[in-house]
Design a protein that fits this description.
Blueprint lengths: L6 H5 L2 H35 L5 H50 L1 H6 L3 H13 L1 H29 L1 H10 L2 H36 L1 H6 L3 H53 L5 H42 L18 E9 L4 E10 L4 E5 L6 H9 L6 E6 L2 E2 L5 H6 L1 E4 L10 H6 L7 H6 L3 H6 L17 H13 L5 E5 L7 H13 L3 E5 L3 H5 L3 E4 L5
Parallel strand pairs: 3-8, 3-9, 6-7, 7-8
Antiparallel strand pairs: 1-2, 1-4, 4-5
Helix pairs in contact: 2-3, 2-6, 2-11, 3-5, 3-6, 3-11, 5-8, 5-11, 6-7, 6-11, 7-10, 8-10, 8-11, 10-11, 17-18
């Protein structure tokens, strides 16, 4: 059984105020439960054994109605508070996770499954709604109510209080055992859900290829298989949920029955007053009800809590270290000094030394798989060298505040990403800059003029389709608008038509900056002032 996760206090600060408010509200609820039980018992005793008048009974009934009304208002406030806190806490946790993922850097992100991360940030954290709105308030209730109501029972009957004290701990013990058993099944359920989400994403992205090779139907079978695994995992969780609910109900019922029998025997023998007996009988089920409900809500919140564990595991990873020194200048030669680069255990590039002169065009070339993009990632500051150093002038990049370096660098990746927004936003990224000159440079102006809404045309996912060549030229235009001192491009002419290639080459010739290009096409090599050869690692 999962209790309260202290990590939520760190990443979702609204949880602290919520816990304090919940304890206060649930304590009031417990007090009202005791008052309600005493009033019901009093009404019965006065009406049937003490011969109270109708007015006296009605006064008690009015008091009871007020208490019931207060309980309803308290319950409504608790529900409102829980849902409000849930929305706030999920937003805080989602933003904290997003900021941490961004701090991990592009190299880390490139090795993550986008489908799994999306599932985690959206549905995973969204599953905490049940945790905050149901499980956590019930957890507070399960602590406060048995304590306060148990003390009230003690004032009425010692024996019943002893029975409560002996039987109540059995329920949490059982729930802990159930939690241990169900945890592996919840983990399996979430694991198959992530696989299913990733598989759907991969199939959708590769659907044109699958259709061309007439293999789309085969993937239907694969999705069905993964879906069946997720269904079986879900049913396994549900079976445990139903069985645990049954056992919890049985334990609670037997405990209340034991109290009822002891009271009944003593009432028959005259060893107990009717007032005390009725009060205890009414209050006893209220002791066990919150504990039973904790078990029920635990299973509803299990998926969200499991996803939170995965989020916390990511947030526990240390971001790549960055220096703190101020960057002297980006208008300086770049040096690779006996650099070894690796993403995991096996190195991709070993012992590379090279100089990249400032203000010139440098081409990084080599065969496929040699590590050209890896070298570019190191120059960008995305991938710290395992050995050696990347040096800007006389400064080790590892000692420099990498954000200052990025402020002077513009980058065009191998597969440029267009945001699902207007072409203007894709170019400017929210900055107020004139794009006309850059559109002319990249030969995009005629194409833009032909768009239905010009620069306000939506491109990217769900927007107007954009060719590979157009996407690369848009990415290049976006980089040029940075007016950066260093421009890095990864295979900028790969897969483009001759017109797009010629446009890109013309732009690179006229750029007043240090230009670093990964490429092996002859047109790229022809404009190089300097080359860096990257060999194959055997």
């Amino acid at each position: 059984m999962r209790g309260f996760d202290r990590r939520l206090l760190t990443y979702a600060r609204s949880t602290r105020a919520f816990l304090i408010a919940s304890v206060a509200v649930q304590s009031l609820q417990a007090v009202l439960i005791v008052i309600q039980a005493l009033l019901i018992a009093t009404i019965i005793v006065e009406a049937f054994t003490e011969g109270a008048t109708l007015d006296q009974v009605m006064n008690r009934v009015v008091q009871l109605a007020v208490v019931i009304g207060l309980r309803s208002l308290t319950a409504f406030f608790a529900e409102w508070l829980a849902h409000r806190t849930a929305a706030t806490a999920m937003s805080e946790l989602r933003m904290a996770a997003w900021r941490h993922m961004m701090s991990m850097g592009p190299a880390w992100l490139s090795h993550q499954r986008t489908g799994e991360l999306a599932q985690l940030l959206v549905r995973g954290i969204g599953g905490l709604e049940a945790y905050y709105a149901r499980y956590l308030p019930q957890l507070v209730l399960a602590v406060v109510v048995p304590l306060i109501v148990g003390v009230a029972i003690l004032t009425q009957d010692v024996l019943a209080a002893v029975i409560v004290a002996l039987t109540v701990p059995l329920i949490p013990v059982f729930m802990i055992l159930v939690g241990w058993v169900s945890q592996s099944r919840v983990d399996r359920q979430w694991r198959w859900l992530s696989v299913l989400g990733n598989h759907f994403l991969d199939v959708v992205e590769g659907l044109p290829t699958l259709k061309a090779f007439n293999r789309a139907q085969h993937q239907v079978g694969q999705i069905r298989r993964v879906g069946d695994e997720h269904r079986q995992a879900t049913m396994g969780v549900l079976r445990i949920t139903f069985l645990s609910a049954l056992v919890l109900e049985l334990l609670s019922t037997l405990s209340v029955a034991l109290i009822a029998v002891s009271i009944g025997v003593r009432l028959v023998h005259g060893d107990m007053t009717l007032m005390a007996g009725l009060s205890v009988l009414i209050m006893a089920p209220e002791v066990y009800l919150p504990l039973r409900m904790v078990g029920q809500h635990f299973h509803a919140a299990a998926e969200g809590a499991d996803a939170a564990d995965r989020v916390f595991a990511i947030m526990a990873q240390e971001p790549p270290s960055s220096g703190t020194a101020d960057l002297i200048t980006a208008d300086a030669d770049l040096s690779l000094r006996d650099v070894t680069l690796a993403y995991g255990e096996d190195p991709v590039v070993t012992g590379l030394s090279a100089t990249i002169p400032a203000g010139r065009i440098t081409v990084i070339n080599g065969p496929s798989g040699a590590g050209k993009t890896t070298v570019l990632n190191a120059l960008l500051g995305f991938l710290p060298p395992r050995d050696g150093a990347v040096v800007i002038g006389t400064q080790d990049l590892a000692s420099v505040d990498v954000r200052q370096w990025w402020a002077d660098v513009a980058w065009v990746p191998q597969s440029p990403q267009l945001l699902p927004t207007t072409l203007r936003e894709n170019l400017t990224l929210g900055h107020d800059v004139d794009v006309d000159e850059v559109l002319a440079q990249t030969r995009l102006a005629p194409w833009v003029a032909g768009l239905p809404d010009g620069l306000d045309t939506v491109v990217g996912e769900g927007g107007r389709p954009v060719s590979v060549g157009q996407a690369r030229r848009i990415a290049l235009a976006r980089a040029l608008l940075r007016r950066a001192r260093v421009l890095m491009l990864d295979e900028p002419t790969a897969g483009v038509d001759p017109e797009s290639e010629a446009a890109i080459i013309d732009v690179l010739r006229g750029v007043d900056a240090t230009v670093i290009v990964v490429g092996h096409r002859s047109a790229i090599n022809d404009i190089a002032d300097h080359t860096v050869a990257v060999g194959v690692v055997v």
